[in-house]
Amino acid sequence: MPQYKKSHIYRAVEFAPIWVVLAIGRILPFWLRGKMFGLLGELIVMYLPKAKKRVHRGLITVFPGLSKKEINSITKKVGCNTALTLSELLMNDDYKKRKKLISADGEGFETLKEAKSNGQGAIIVSAHFGQWEAIRHHLAENNMETGAVYRKNNNPFYERLFLKSIKYGGLPIIARGGKGNINMIRHLKKGGFFALLVDQDSHSGKQIKFLGQDARTTTAPAEMALRYDLPLVPVFAVRQANGQNIKLEYEEAIIHTDAITMTNEINDRISARIQKNPEQWYWLHNRWNKE
Predict the structure, then answer these.
(1) How many CB atoms lie within 10 A of CB 10?
(2) Which of 32, 36, 104, 192 is an S-S bond match for 248, by CB 3.0 to 4.6 Å?
(3) Distance separating alpha carbons of residues 144 and 167, to the nearest angstrom
(4) Mean per-residue pLDDT for 73-80?
(5) Is residue 288 assigned to a domain?
(6) Average of pLDDT values for 106-123?
């Protein structure tokens, strides 16, 4: 059998469990679907050694005073929130209809409305925290459709599903790097909005403190905001205790100074949110590149 066919079959088998659980999820009521995915996420993160180890390592690094019981409790909640968010994201056509679950507050929202009314582009920065996709849904609902950047997946079946799903949150959707960056800049210069999740390790980034630890961090959002005179607004989507409602916090825009100072401020804002609700951040990222 040719190698490419083996690879294609392997990817299909790899994707099959995801397809099955999503198919089951679609026939369940929204509240029950959330319970199912939350429990599934808890089980995966607690019983998949690599996932558990990575979450524990991050928590111990940032919160050295936590007891083993506290670490395990947060880890379970991380798995729950991650699975909930991913399921909502992969069924974004359905999640788009759940507008009543999303509320918002903060002066950053007025900053974005003003930019929109003036035909000015804007950059929204956030993290893999809470239900980050709710940000774009809320902006679209308020006539501020917002594009996003994503990383292509090696699995073609997952790639097609993921790309189709995130388009329900707003357009344009561009792949990270190269031509995608050029298209993003063009969109911003024409008055468009883009949301960027800036909490991952960046190979070309600067060493900037993140949760008290040096971390390679992209300065691109700050550089674009300065170069094209765009508001740079941090927004965070905090999942509420019932697991369904989302409270968006539109924070004060980052003051334009220089790229390093502004990126430090972004990291400080993200860190403050994570310290307040550590269970809502995606600790499965290898944020400090220690592996």
Answers:
(1) 11
(2) 104
(3) 15
(4) 98
(5) no
(6) 99
Is 30 inside a domain boundary? yes
Q: By the 8 A CB rule, do 80 and 43 touch?
A: no
Beta carbons of 267 and 209 less than 8 angstroms apart: yes
Give me the count of residues in the chain: 291
**Tens digits of per-residue pLDDT, 36-46?**
999 999 999 99
β-strands 232-239, 246-250 pairing: antiparallel
User: Both 147 and 48 in a single domain?
Assistant: no
Rg (CA), the chain: 19
Tell which of 49, 70, 93 closes a domain: 93
Q: Are strands 102-105 and 213-217 parallel, antiparallel or unpaired?
A: unpaired
Sign of the Cα torsion 177, 231, 132, 129 reads positive
Average pLDDT over residues 50-78: 98
70, 151: one domain: no
Count Cβ atoms within 10 A of the Cβ of residue 255 and give its class: 0-12 exposed, 13-18 middle, 19 or more buried. Answer: exposed
- What Å distances lie between residue 201 and 127, 174, 237, 289, CA to CA? 12, 19, 21, 7
What would the pLDDT profile of 164-199 be if each residue is shown by its tens digit? 999 999 999 999 987 889 999 999 999 999 999 999
In this structure, what token pair is assigned to residue 223? 């550089």
- Measured CA to CA in angstroms, residue 76 lies from 68, 104, 282, 283 at distances of 12, 27, 12, 11
Residue 153 CB neighbour total at 10 angstroms: 15
Q: For residue 142, what is the DSSP state?
A: T
Domain interval for residue 114? 100-280
**CA nearest to 163, candidates 180, 182, 138:** 180
C-alpha distances (whole Å) from 45 to each of 65, 73, 77, 129, 282 are 22, 11, 9, 17, 11
**Sequence-separated (6 or more) residues with CB below 8 Å from residue 134:** 101, 102, 237, 246, 248
